[in-house]
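Hi R.,

Here's the chain you asked about this morning:
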Amino acid sequence: MAKLTKRVVDALQSEAKDYFVWDSQIAGFGLRVMPSGAKTYQAQYRKGGRTRRVSIGRHGKITVDEARKLAKEVMGQVAKGENPAEEISLHRKAPTVAALCERFFEEHAKQRCKPSTQGEYRRAIDLFIIPAIGSFKTVDVERRDIAELHQKFRDKPYQANRTLGVLSKMFNLAEIWGLRPDGSNPCRHVPKYREIKRERYLSQQELRRLGQVLGEADQDGSETPYVIAAFRLLILTGCRLGEIQTLQWQFITDSGMELPDTKTGARLIPLPQAARAVLSTLPQLADNPYVIAGKLPGQYATDLQHPWRRIREPAGIPDVRIHDLRHTYSSNAVSSGMPIQMVGRLLGHTQIQTTMRYAHLANDPVNRAAEENAERLNALVGTPTTERVLRVVR
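And the predicted structure, written out as tokens:
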């Protein structure tokens, strides 16, 4: 044993097998010389009746003095009852964020979430989370890592916020699974971006043009009758796209559309006569249970986006999304004077706050009534026909 110095370390030669040289000043501090010639500083101690060894750093990357200082820190941890070698081993075996993503998807998303939500989670995981921090150890992720990932997609605030939500749920589960300390979710206090809610309603004139284009497409056969019916049903019922796409004939009863599973659970959706008239035009296929039959046997029409783009262009509404048909249904209901609570029930909202986005439209019938009443009164009492010039008296 001798005091380890740069000169002593540089003079050591590799042998057929690796060997150790221990420092004479600090017990447990030494150097490991590999047959390849690589030299790494070590800190060795006993814990639980076993010899433990921690690799401090490679000679050339750190100096002897730096290694000696780190060795003292390791021995200090041991004196406090800690086991740094075991902690390092556990950290090395700790799952990465990519592994956490897969466990989250298999044990949570697949078990508890609807297929549409699973698709959203999978997209966030594959496109945004794994490419950014997938190689990080789950236990090492810090708030700044999450903030950087969130800020990276600031030009897509909606997607950035949804990804932050997925991450927050994942790290909550990581605590439950014992992969991180309690209360250590790194997503906490990372502020979401402000989202501008897009509210687009079709005017009466736009609805007429849309109806005309749907009729023409039905007549010339450019779109299937099932596609045409899907859009008409969306307009007349205010349903979500998935609710109409996956609608089965067996769900249609005298009471309406009795859907066993929707975004908000089982729902009974009213089916007005106009919607029933649309359904009466569709042939029921013996080998297909779905109302909106697709091209494949026994399947529903999975792609309505491309037909919608073909239809909305000649209708003069190129900015309208399919979901805006639901907004149009809602806005018409509220503008006609229907109570917000009733509109919420028609839409299947579980919280009144969701329906309150249309609350400002409830003023429309009130304003119209005020105008009509004022016109009648004005016809009786009249109003000044000329404007007076106001003079300021000093």
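The domain at 97-176 is CATH 1.10.150 (DNA polymerase; domain 1).

Let me know if you need anything else.
M.
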